[in-house]
Amino acid sequence: MDKLKVTTEESNCVTIVRVSGAADMLSTEILERALDRITVQRPPVVLLDLTGLTFLTSLGMGALARFSHSVKRNGQVRLHVPPGHVRDVLQRSRVIELFEQVDAV
What we know:
By secondary structure, the protein is of the alpha/beta class. It contains three helices and five strands; from the N terminus they run ββαβαβαβ. Strand 3, helix 2 (about 60-70) and strand 4 form a beta-alpha-beta unit.
């Protein structure tokens, strides 16, 4: 599986978080720590880009759900996830409903 990678950048007052690779049982902690670091910064708008995410476990979905709830306390969180396996998993679990969805980054 692809190694999980989380990167951030700022663009027009939006924090863009790009997640790529596989969020499996072993790498979910990496995802959680990266998302926690972003949450404590209290960004007004976060765009979570899952374009490069190839695999997502229930632990990873839990991390995304907690991140959504935490960011929404102080700002907005948007999600970009293209059609495919990860989007299907997020839809079936209804985790996708926790995010405002956008078509492009």
